[in-house]
Amino acid sequence: IQRVREARVQVEGGPSGSISKGLVALVAVAKTDTQADADYLVEKLLGLRIFPDDAGKMNRSVVEIGGSLLVISNFTLYGDCGKGRRPGFDLAAAPEQARPLYDYVVAKLRAREVPVETGVFQASMLVSLVNDGPVTLVCESKNK
Fold first, then answer.
1. Among 132, 141, 144, which Cα is nearest to 58's?
2. Would you give the DSSP letter of residue 83?
3. What pLDDT is attached to residue 143?
4. Alpha carbon of residue 143 to chain centroid
């Protein structure tokens, strides 16, 4: 998760999604992930208090500041670089398992009070962003 001032994603040379102030969420699905994991992530994204309040303390959520979300699928987050020079992706879910959970996360977020933009699942994408802070956090489901 990255707190951003602005972000956009392009697919095959054309725009796919863009936001101003908000969060970029790079979402990876593990082989062991379930809808409960996805529900946890949705609530975490919406409730995480990482935007400054009037005193400058991280005390507001993306919902409270009227921000947006840019959600991008990214299986490479499960890349294991522990052996050799080529990362292994054994922990990442296969596309036929990952896509429904990714789509589920996006649908659950869109049903809430925050604008949501996305990339394209399994596409090669160009992501541009201005990280605000910088603030970058790793968020894994409580079931891990």
1. 132
2. S
3. 56
4. 18
| 10-residue stretch averages of pLDDT, the chain, 144 residues long | 98 92 97 95 97 97 98 93 92 95 98 96 96 95 66
Measured distance CA(47)–CA(140) in Å, rounded: 14
How far is residue 39's CA from residue 108's CA, in Å, rounded to a whole number? 8
Q: What is the rounded CA–CA span in Å between residue 115 and residue 112?
A: 8
pLDDT at 144: 52
What six digits make up the tokens of 97?
């398992």
C-alpha to C-alpha distances, 65 to 20, 49, 57, 59, 62, nearest whole angstrom: 12, 10, 13, 10, 5
Nearest to 27 by CA among 15, 44, 12, 48: 44
Does pTM top 0.90 for this prediction? yes
